[in-house]
Write a structure and sequence with these properties.
The chain is mostly helical and about 190 residues long. Helix 1 packs antiparallel against helix 2.
């Protein structure tokens, strides 16, 4: 197994910085990028140094990855708008189905191979992808459920405030006594005075 690429050894925050810089520099200026990255590595006390050639190779791979992400996102948006799927939960469900079908094709291709032909990295990637998608789906569903609950609470509070206002207006018109009003608030509105 070949050793990992130097860029893969970068801490997460520096790799994120590198991705942002690659995009900001239009996937060019690898000499300047190498200098800036190595300066940051030195500042952080890391002995790792990465040359412009290694950054260029990684930059080309990352550029292709970024383009694929943009294309996939644009394709999914177009497909969903053509099929009138504007609801976010429905969009997420459709994307999950698309990912599942791709994963199934990869899994099926892996099952056709014999023991030494199977690449464990591909199986690991497939498992991680499915886990991430399922986790994302659960998190999104929880957020949507929480938002629905919040909206329902606000609607109940607004309805109760309106009912209380109408009740107070009716009581003022009827000229009822305080004790009767307090009893009616408890019995009919569920309010404590």
């Amino acid at each position: 197994m070949p050793p990992p690429k130097k860029v893969e050894l970068l801490p997460g925050e520096l790799r994120s910085w590198l991705h942002d810089e690659l995009k900001a520099r239009g996937f060019g200026d690898y000499v300047g990028l190498a200098e800036a990255l190595n300066f940051r590595l030195e500042e952080e006390g890391l002995e790792l140094r990465i040359g412009k050639s290694a950054l260029h190779n990684y930059g080309q791979e990352y550029e292709q990855f970024a383009k694929l992400q943009e294309e996939a996102g644009a394709w999914a948006q177009q497909w969903m708008s053509e099929n009138d799927l504007s609801d976010e939960a429905e969009q997420h469900r459709v994307l999950f189905q698309m990912m599942t079908s791709v994963a199934f094709k990869v899994l099926k291709a892996q099952m056709m191979k014999t023991g030494e032909e199977i690449d464990p990295r591909e199986l690991h990637f497939l498992g991680k992808m499915m886990k991430d998608v399922m986790s994302s789906s659960g998190i999104r569903e929880k957020l949507m459920s929480d938002e629905r609950d919040r909206i329902a609470r606000e609607a109940r509070a607004a309805a109760q405030a309106e009912m209380t206002e109408r009740f107070d207006e009716a009581v003022a018109e009827a000229g009822l006594g305080e004790e009767t009003v307090a009893k009616m608030r408890r019995d009919f509105l569920g309010l404590r005075t």
